[in-house]
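Look over what follows to help learners.
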Amino acid sequence: MDGLRFAVGTLSVFPVRVERVDREVAGRAMALAPLVGLALGVVASLALLLPGPPLMGAALALCLLAVLTRGLHLDGLADLADGLGSGRPASQALDIMKKSDIGPFGVVTLVFTLLIQAAALSAAGAGTAGGGPALFLAGAPALVTACVTGRLALTWACRAGVPAARPDGLGVLVAGTVRARTAWLVTGAALAGCAALGTGRAGETGVPGPVVLVAGALAGLGAALALLRHARRRLGGVTGDVLGALVETATAVTLVVCAALG
């Protein structure tokens, strides 16, 4: 339970009492991260039930998701964009990322990422007359899958062999704490859960719902791993900002692929 408490307390706004914090607990927390993503996706999807155009419902759902996560992942995305966009050496890029302000690269990245997420999520309800149950049934599976995939990216980013870029901060606590075997087992469970969400659904293209959601999850995870590889090459490892950026990247790509196939 220490790992679950740490995961909930770190990845969400839900109040929990964390009594133990060390690398062993951090490893369990990162392995359980997709479970927290499942809870966040379910709660955020409730905003899709509100009446109104699909785009408004999608925007409200993403807004609620940002509130539920304290906006930390979005902040990490903006900081990483500023650091990598600066073109500076690793040490200087890390210093830029550590600053509290957001530069032009961060602002542009945030704006377009949120636009893409909202447009992709609303595309799931393009055939509905407005918000409400129809939009919820169409968009909730995609949003939940995206939230699970975003946190699955954390499991892989914290696997053994991935170093921390700094000697302090969240990165050094969680880096390298998840065994490769655990990451594969968690991935299998997450994909099975995503497939179950699409049971009985079929997209407009004739592709079965489970295939759409699993394809979206795999694409989102692949995009996050590609970004992780680039961040490791440029910065030397992971930081809290890198982890946040991976979450948002995986979420966006998952939603785009689900919208394109569904």
